[in-house]
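Q: Structure tokens for this one, please.
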Amino acid sequence: SPLHLEPRFLDRAKVRFGGSYQEAAVDDVRTLGTLIVVFMSLIPYWLVYFQMETSFQAQGLHMHFETSKFEVPAAWLTIFNQIFLIVAIPLLANLLYPRLDRQGIRLSLLVRIGVGMLFSCLAVMTAGGLESFRLKAWN
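A: Here is the predicted structure, written as tokens:
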């Protein structure tokens, strides 16, 4: 019939398709596969996050702005991330996301997480570019 779908890879292990495993067990394995992909995608984010605690402070110790009289202590560089999050989360949750919802643009949680990871990657690339520029100027 047109409603009969060809079984996917793991479906062949189900009893109804001639396999030896119950439906719930096969569905649990499929869900586990999805979770593994999600957690594997989080590894680069956490590598970057924990790098921030050491590299940003070390980078701040070596930066000197001769043209500016305003000086930020190097230890404060790690605080800016927390301050940014304290400000950004209410703005996104109360202003941006409701406005997008009213316009018919609904972002799932995975899309929101992906956008956040994209911005964290851009922040790290910016810090890396600044560090490269600083090292060239130092040499």
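A few notes: The two ends are 73 Å apart (CA to CA). The chain has a mean pLDDT of 81.
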